[in-house]
What does this fold into?
Amino acid sequence: MTNNSQPTGRNATKREQPSIAIPASAGIKRYGITALQALMVSLGQPTYRADQLIEWLYGRSAESYDQMTNLPASLRDQLEQQQPIARPEVIDRQISSDGTRKYLLRYADGARIEAVGIPDRSRLTVCFSTQVGCSMGCTFCATGRNGLVRQLAPGEIVDQLTVVANDFGQNVNSAVAMGEGEPFANYSATLDALRLINHPKSLNIGARHLTISTSGVISGLMAFAAEPEQFRLAVSLHSARQQTRNMLMPRLTGYSINALQQTLLNYNLAVGRRVSLEYILIDEVTDTDAEIAALIAFCTELNCHINLIPVNAAGADPEFFVPTPLSRARAIRSRLLSAGIATSIRRSRGADIASACGQLAGS
Ligand code: SAH
Ligand code: SF4
It folds into this structure.
């Protein structure tokens, strides 16, 4: 078979970098609240039309502008031509024995991500993705393995929640950005998404029930501390010793542990809220006496809550990423509690369908 489509000559040696930008097919889902208001003004409409659109798109999961009967027909026509409405398609759904549901979603351009619905008595939490893949390459995490494919748009993030809500047939009560991606590497879209989720005509979830989990991007932490809403923060620390953290999180070596600690102390002061620290327990790696002593030192001045998470198998080197046995995890929790640090051991939900932390890979 001949290969006519291959570039020849000089271009053949220059490999095209795929774009990580949001594709045109995202249509109306590319806009946050202020951008929707600006769009309405540019079309000669009052800004309250943005609220009406938000209600249709995210409160009622509308699939076409025809449904939006309280918008003028001329506006619906204009939007129809300029801003397609795309909704992600559920291409696979797996249900765990504990009721957790994992969704493989495909956007109009073919990009795939995973989202998870976690029921707990009458409440429903969604674990959502902020990027397709992730560029951080943490060695224990399945998401990072294939790098970053592209950014997600604000509405593409919100749609993950509406898909899960519709599938469960109930409202979402809380949401965490603990799916694929590093939220602070897609800062403005993630914040726009949180504001859309928070909007009374959309999912109307209170800011205190919306949590961002970051691997510790310091510029993002500083910006987040200055946001007016009471969104919650979780930081993936995993080790308070520089050498160990560098090995586990090789792309975050530019942010020192000391700088991270100082930034979190400033965060405490700025927002007056506690920060959650995620700490994966890897046998003989992050659970040694020296590691726990460093963790206690890191937290001494900090208003924080530590979640200890026995590492999940994520397809990475299983000989290295062995979870700490539960008996030792409990001993570590006792040691932290005695040091005055609020600590829980987080049970993984949905591990049998690979929907636990770090197991999402859009596969
Ligand atoms: N990129 C962000 C949010 C997504 S990852 C972050 O790193 O915080 C969500 C959480 O899953 C993080 O705390 C991450 O460290 C954790 N995680 C990743 N791989 C894991 C694994 N194999 N076992 C347990 N937790 C894991
Ligand atoms: Fe990215 Fe978070 Fe996975 Fe690290 S742990 S690769 S930051 S998703």
